[in-house]
Design brief:
Length: 784
C-alpha cells in the first residue's frame, strides 16, 4: 500500500469523524437551543411601530406623532425593480434557498476559525428577519445558531413574499425612517413606487449600514454602494447595459424631507392627541392609528390667514416695538447666516438681519443666504410704540426705524417685502357646521409654535355684548317681540354681589329713552339689556343659557349677566350661536370624524345628533336628532334681528360681503379687554376673539367691530365664496306687520314712516299708534 493511499485513507476517516462530530454537535445544539426558540407563528400577527397620523376630512395630513417614521406596505406594493436591487445587495439566492445560504455560512465559519470573530455573517434576508424580530444584535456563536434555526422555521411557516414584506417594513434606514416606504419619503419626498432605478439601488444599499451609506450625510460612500449594487443587478441579468450606464451616471438627488404636513392645524392636532391619549395611552404613538378630523382644509387655511393677518394688523396700527435683538455684523457672514437659520419663522413672519441702512431703505440678510432690500414703503408705517393708546412721531427715514445688526421680522404684502413684528396680542377663530356641530376650522392663537395655549377651547373670557342675543332669545320666548319697548335711561343698582352701587352706561355715554328691542340689539344698548334681564328674571335667563350649553356655575346671578360677564370660551360661544342658525337645536361640537387602525379597519365613526325639524334619514335610521332648545319662531326672530346688526348696527363692516343671509353680533368688554364677533348663516357659524392672554385693554379705539370683525369677514369671505344666498324664511306662525317705529304699535292707516316688523301671531300689537308727530304710549307694561 502506497504512502499516499494511506494518507488519503487517514484523511478520509478523519473527515468522516469530523463530520460525525459536527453532526452530533449540531444535533446537540439543536436540542439545546430548540426549546428556547420563540414562536415563529407570531410573525403573522406582527404590528409594526407606526406613528399616529391625523388628517383633515379631505385627507390633508395635519400631524404625525411618534418616534419612528414608518408606512407599512404589502408585498404587492413593492416595485419589482426594488426587490431586484435589494436581493442583489443582501441575498441574491433569496427566492431559491430555504432560509440559509450554505456558501455564506461556510465563509462566516472560515472567518471565525481564522480570526476568532464573525466578520461577515453570511446572513440571508430570512436570517435578518429572525434577528430583527426575535434576537439581539450581539455577534456570538449561540446567537448565530439560533438565528439559523429560526430562519429554517420561518421558511417552513411563511412564504417568501411574507418574509420579504416583513423585512422591508422592519429595517432601519436612517433619519428615523423604518421601512422602504418611509425611506422613500424621507430621502426623496415621494412613494417608493415613484423612484428611479438609481434611487431604488440607493435605498437598497442602506440596510448594511444606514449611517455609512447615507446619501445625505455621506454621498461619496452612498454612490459607491449604489453603483456596486447596480453592477450586481447587471451581473444577475436584472438590468441591461443601458440601464446600468444611465443609473450609474444619475446624480444624487436625495435630501431630507420632513413629514409632508399639508395643512396647518396644530391646535386641532393637539386636541386629537390629548383626547385619544386618554383612551389608548402610549400605544397611540406606535400602533398606526389614522384619525380623520372634521376640518375642511380650505376653511382651515382661510382661518389661519384671517387670524394671522388680523393680529398683525392690530399690532402694526399700534406702533413698532423695535428689533428683537441686535447682532455684531462684523462677524463673518457665514457665522451670521448659521445663527439666522436657527431663528424660527412664525407663519408669514420671517427673520431678517439688517446689514445696511440708507435714508429710504435697508439691505437685509434672510435665511438660506438670501439678501434683499426693504424699501421705504414697506416700513414707513413703523411709528414707535408707546402704549396701546399712543405712538411716537412718524418716521421720516429708515434710520429712524432700523440700525445695522437689527434682527427683525418681515413678511410679503401685496408682492413686496414689509417690515412687521410678532404680535403681543392674541386671538382665535372657531367655525362650526351649525347643523351637526362639526368643527370646520379652529385657530387657537397667532402661532402654535410660538405659543401652544389654545384660546378657542381653553381661554375663559367675558363675551360682553356678544352674549346679549341669548338674553334677547329668552325674552322673546317669554312673549316679548322685536317691537317691544324698553326704556334706555339711567339707572343705579345697589347689588351686594356687585360690591355696592352699580351705574351701568351705554358705550356712547348717552341715553335714548324708550327703544324697540330690535333697535336696542343692533345698537347694543346696555341699559335695555339690563332692564330686559330684570324683567324676565335672572333664573329664567340662566335656565335658557344652560340649555344652550353654557356652564351654569360660570353664569353670574346678577344683572351684569345681561352685559356678558359670564365666563365662556370661544368654542362654547360659537356652539350657543349655532342654535340661532339651525332653527333652535342644541348641537354638540366635535372634531374627530373617523378613526382607523393601521390596517384600515374602522374603530370609530362619529354619529352626531343633527339639527333638523323634518329629517328622516333613510340611509341611517339610527341617526339621532339634536334636542330642541328654542322655538323655531324665536330663532327666526333672533336671526332676523341679528341681520340688522350687519345692515345698520355695530357690524356694518360686514356689508362688504354683500350677502343678505348673514347675521351676527359684536362684543366688547369693559376697558376693551376682549373684542368679539360671532356671525353666521344657515351653513356656517364662526366666532372670532381678540385680546391679551393676561387681560388688559386693547386700546380705547379697539372694539369688537374693529379688532375681531375683520378676522370674521376675512374668513367668511372665503367660506361663502360661490355658495348661494340662503336667508331664513319665516316659519309658520310668523307674520309681518307694519308698525310705528317710535312706539312699536301697529302703524295707523297711511302712516308715512311706518316700517315692517315680524311677530309671532299671538304677539302682534293690538293697539294702533296715534297719528301725531309726538308719539306716546299708553301702555306702561312694556316700559321698564
Amino acid at each position: 500500500m502506497s504512502p499516499m493511499f494511506s494518507l488519503f485513507k487517514l484523511l478520509f476517516k478523519l473527515g468522516i469523524f469530523c463530520f460525525l462530530i459536527g453532526l452530533i454537535s449540531a444535533a446537540g445544539a439543536y436540542y439545546y437551543f430548540s426549546p428556547q426558540l420563540p414562536n415563529v407563528e407570531t410573525l403573522r400577527d406582527i404590528r409594526f411601530q407606526t406613528p399616529l397620523r391625523i388628517y383633515s376630512q379631505d385627507q390633508k395630513l395635519i400631524a404625525e406623532f411618534g418616534e419612528k417614521r414608518r408606512t407599512p406596505i404589502t408585498f404587492e406594493e413593492i416595485p419589482p425593480q426594488f426587490t431586484q436591487a435589494l436581493t442583489a445587495a443582501e441575498d441574491s439566492r433569496f427566492f431559491d434557498h430555504h432560509g440559509i445560504d450554505i456558501k455564506g455560512l461556510f465563509r462566516a465559519a472560515f472567518q471565525l476559525a481564522t480570526t476568532g470573530h464573525i466578520q461577515s455573517g453570511g446572513s440571508t434576508i430570512t436570517m435578518q428577519v429572525a434577528k430583527n424580530f426575535f434576537l439581539t444584535r450581539e455577534r456570538t456563536f449561540s446567537r448565530k445558531f439560533m438565528e439559523i434555526l429560526l430562519a429554517l422555521r420561518i421558511e417552513q411557516e411563511l412564504s417568501k413574499e411574507e418574509i420579504l414584506e416583513l423585512y422591508i417594513n422592519k429595517i432601519y434606514l436612517g433619519h428615523r425612517s423604518y421601512g422602504i416606504q418611509a425611506a422613500a419619503n424621507v430621502y426623496y419626498g415621494t412613494d417608493i413606487k415613484n423612484l428611479s432605478l438609481a434611487q431604488h439601488a440607493m435605498i437598497a444599499g442602506l440596510p448594511k449600514a444606514p449611517s455609512a451609506y447615507n446619501p445625505i450625510t455621506n454621498s461619496d460612500r452612498a454612490i459607491e454602494r449604489r453603483n456596486w449594487i447596480l453592477r450586481r443587478m447587471h451581473s444577475l441579468s436584472f438590468i441591461n447595459d443601458q440601464q446600468l450606464e444611465n443609473a450609474t451616471n444619475e446624480p444624487v438627488s436625495a435630501k431630507y424631507h420632513t413629514s409632508d404636513i399639508e395643512l396647518r392645524a396644530f391646535y386641532v392636532a393637539e386636541m386629537v392627541r390629548q383626547q385619544l391619549y386618554e383612551q389608548y395611552g402610549e400605544s397611540l404613538y406606535t400602533d398606526g392609528y389614522v384619525v380623520y378630523t372634521t376640518l375642511q382644509s380650505n376653511l382651515q387655511t382661510t382661518a389661519n390667514d384671517a387670524v394671522s393677518n388680523g393680529l398683525i394688523a392690530y399690532s402694526e396700527r399700534h406702533g413698532y416695538f423695535g428689533a428683537e435683538d441686535n447682532w455684531d455684523t462684523t462677524e463673518p457672514q457665514e457665522t451670521l447666516q448659521k445663527r439666522l437659520n436657527k431663528i424660527i419663522s412664525y407663519g408669514v413672519l420671517k427673520p431678517a438681519l439688517v446689514l445696511n441702512v440708507s435714508e429710504k431703505g435697508a439691505e437685509l440678510l434672510l435665511k438660506n443666504n438670501q439678501t434683499t432690500t426693504l424699501e421705504w414703503e414697506g416700513m414707513s408705517w413703523a411709528k414707535p410704540y408707546k402704549s396701546v393708546n399712543r405712538t411716537g412721531k412718524t418716521p421720516k427715514a429708515a434710520t429712524d426705524i432700523l440700525k445695522i445688526g437689527d434682527l427683525i421680522r418681515v413678511r410679503e404684502k401685496e408682492g413686496k417685502l414689509h417690515l412687521s413684528q410678532i404680535p403681543k396680542v392674541q386671538g382665535s377663530l372657531v367655525a362650526l357646521n351649525p347643523k351637526t356641530g362639526a368643527i370646520l376650522s379652529l385657530v387657537g392663537g397667532f402661532n402654535f409654535t410660538h405659543n401652544k395655549f389654545n384660546r378657542s377651547t381653553q381661554a375663559v373670557r367675558q363675551p360682553g355684548s356678544n352674549f346679549k342675543p341669548f338674553i334677547y332669545a329668552a325674552a322673546l320666548n317669554k312673549g316679548y317681540s322685536p317691537a317691544s319697548l324698553i326704556n334706555d335711561a339711567p339707572i343705579v343698582f345697589h347689588d351686594t354681589s356687585l360690591e355696592g352701587n352699580w351705574r351701568p352706561q351705554n358705550s356712547s355715554r348717552k341715553f335714548y329713552g324708550p327703544t324697540r328691542l330690535r333697535q336696542a340689539l343692533y345698537k347694543s344698548r346696555n341699559l335695555v339689556s339690563i332692564r330686559l334681564l330684570r324683567a324676565i328674571g335672572i333664573p329664567t335667563a340662566q335656565d335658557y343659557l344652560e340649555l344652550a350649553g353654557f356652564d351654569r356655575s360660570k353664569l353670574p346671578s346678577n344683572l351684569s349677566l345681561s352685559l356678558g360677564s359670564a365666563d365662556v370660551t370661544p368654542l362654547t360661544l360659537a356652539t350657543g350661536y349655532a342654535a340661532f342658525a339651525n332653527g333652535g337645536f342644541k348641537v354638540e361640537p366635535f372634531f374627530i370624524k373617523r378613526i382607523e387602525d393601521a390596517f384600515g379597519k374602522s374603530l370609530f365613526t362619529a354619529q352626531p345628533k343633527i339639527a333638523c325639524n323634518t329629517c328622516v334619514d333613510t340611509e341611517n335610521p339610527q341617526q339621532q336628532l339634536a334636542p330642541k332648545i328654542y322655538d323655531e319662531k324665536v330663532t327666526f326672530l333672533i336671526y332676523n334681528m341679528l341681520q340688522d346688526v350687519i345692515r345698520r348696527g355695530t357690524g356694518r363692516k360686514a356689508l362688504v360681503l354683500d350677502r343678505r343671509d348673514i347675521a351676527g353680533k359684536t362684543g366688547t368688554t369693559n376697558d376693551q379687554k376682549d373684542a368679539w364677533f360671532s356671525g353666521f348663516n344657515q351653513e356656517y357659524i364662526a366666532t372670532a376673539w381678540v385680546g391679551f392672554d393676561q387681560p388688559k385693554t386693547l386700546g380705547r379705539r379697539e372694539f369688537g367691530g374693529t379688532a375681531a370683525l375683520p378676522i370674521w369677514i376675512d374668513f367668511m369671505r372665503e367660506a361663502l365664496k360661490g355658495t348661494p344666498e340662503n336667508p331664513p324664511t319665516p316659519p309658520e306662525g310668523i307674520v309681518s306687520v307694519k308698525i310705528d317705529p317710535k312706539s312699536g304699535k301697529r302703524a295707523y292707516p297711511g302712516q308715512s314712516d311706518a316700517i315692517y316688523e315680524f311677530f309671532r301671531k299671538e304677539n302682534v300689537p293690538a293697539n294702533y299708534a296715534a297719528p301725531s308727530s309726538i308719539q306716546r304710549t299708553n301702555s306702561t307694561e312694556e316700559l321698564f
